[in-house]
Amino acid sequence: MAMRLSVVIPTHNRPQSLRRSLDALEAQTLARDRFEVLAVDDGSSPEHRKEIRQFRAPFGYRLLEKAQGGLPTARNVGAERATGDVLLFLDDDVVPHPDLLLQHLRTHEEADEPLAVVGALPYPDHVELDCFLWYLEQSGHYDLYRNPKKYAGGAPPLPPLNGNSSVRRSAFFDVGRYDERFSSYGSEDLELGYRLNKAGVRFVYNPQAVGYHDHIKDFPRFCHDMELAGESLIGIYRIYPEIKAAKKIDVVEDRLSQLHGKKKLIKLIMATTMALPWVLALPRAVVRVGTPYMGLRRVLFPLYRWVAHHHYAVGMRRGLDDA
Q1: Are residues 142 and 230 in contact, defined by beta-carbon separation less than 8 angstroms?
Q2: Taking a C-beta distance cutoff of 8 angstroms, is the pair 41, 52 a contact?
Q3: Residues 105, 64 share a domain
Q4: How far is 108 from 271, CA to CA, in rounded Å?
Q5: Rounded to two decimals, what is the model's pTM?
Q6: In the chain, what are the helix, strand and coil shares in percent, each to the nearest 5?
């Protein structure tokens, strides 16, 4: 019997984004009787909820409503009500390419073992890239499998189940769903991915499963989110201390004498910028002025990384101090 797919889309106060995703789902090449869509309104304001309630779609579409609780709770509610063999978690700011559902489902059907399938997350064509958005794409910040050579073993040490990813429904519930304690930015997908990987679920990257990430943020907002992500990573570390070296938590937590090789240099740079944050004033000024000029993108790339990693380390330090 052919597999069926359940698409779970959590949303909060973004009816226009949800509408774009639903419109794109109407154009899918996968037969309509092989998928359903569950949008989970996670505590939107009354005016936004009213607008979302008016949405209709010609495929199996259901709207679920709940009090605001964050991404993991919304995804869990959708998964509990889903009826498909495969769960596809799609963020409301991800616009699926017409073949996205087919690519996800086909990858699962062709495997003899439970998989987690991660798709690509490029920006849509209408987004005009500046140097910072180009940095995000080239560094693989959202698309972690874009540059596999940067990982030991060719894959992220904590493979994410993110906003364009799918997993067998049975495997999802076998490992215990999303952990609803991880409601802050940048943690719930990594934590679940780690549990799935430990349980023997193989992660597969399918670059043909394209979901266009139709949402942009500027560099200051990105740095703020990096601090949240660093802090939430420590929550995962408290449960799984074995991730320490792979996620470079040792660079923040350990003394210089305990580190080896490249990590010593990273620690020195990190310690300097934490002790003397004014050191970052120059790279911040350069990227602020240079971001619109694409000819400077390769010059600015290491500066974005330096400042962003500083904020990530600040978040980790805060998480370690609070524990």
Answers
A1: no
A2: yes
A3: yes
A4: 45
A5: 0.93
A6: 50, 15, 35
Claim to verify: residue 153 and residue 117 sit in the same structural domain? yes
C-alpha angle 149-150-156 in degrees, rounded to nearest 5? 95
Say which CATH number the domain at 181 has: 3.90.550.10
Residues 238-271 have pLDDT tens digits of 999 999 998 999 999 999 999 988 899 999 999 9
Number of structural domains (the chain) is 2
Q: Which of 170, 197, 213 finishes a domain?
A: 213
Taking CA atoms, 158 is separated from 94, 162, 203, 222, 278, in Å, by 22, 11, 10, 21, 33
Supply the pLDDT for residue 58. 86
Q: What does the buried/exposed string (b/e) look like for 50-85 if buried means 16 or more CB atoms within 10 Å of the residue's CB? A: eebeeeebebbbebbeeeebbbbbbbbbbbeebebb
| Per-residue model confidence (pLDDT) at position 3 | 83
What type of residue is 94? V
Q: Are residues 231 and 200 in the same domain?
A: no
Are residues 68 and 151 both part of a single domain? yes
**Per-residue pLDDT tens digits for 278-318:** 999 999 999 999 999 999 999 999 999 999 999 999 999 99
End-to-end CA distance of the chain: 49
Helices (H) and strands (E) in the chain, counts: 12, 8
Of 173, 194, 213, the one marking the end of a domain is: 213
The 10 Å CB-count burial string (b at 16+, else e) for 117-133 is bbbbbbbeeeeeebbbb
Same domain, residue pair 99 and 242: no
What domain range includes position 156? 5-213
The rounded distance, in Å, linking the Cα atoms of 16 and 280 is 37
- Taking CB atoms within 8 Å and a gap of at least 24, the contacts of 54-59 are 55/15, 55/18, 55/19, 55/22, 57/22, 57/25, 57/26, 58/26, 58/32, 59/25, 59/26, 59/28, 59/32, 59/35
Residues 165 and 185 occupy one common structural domain: yes
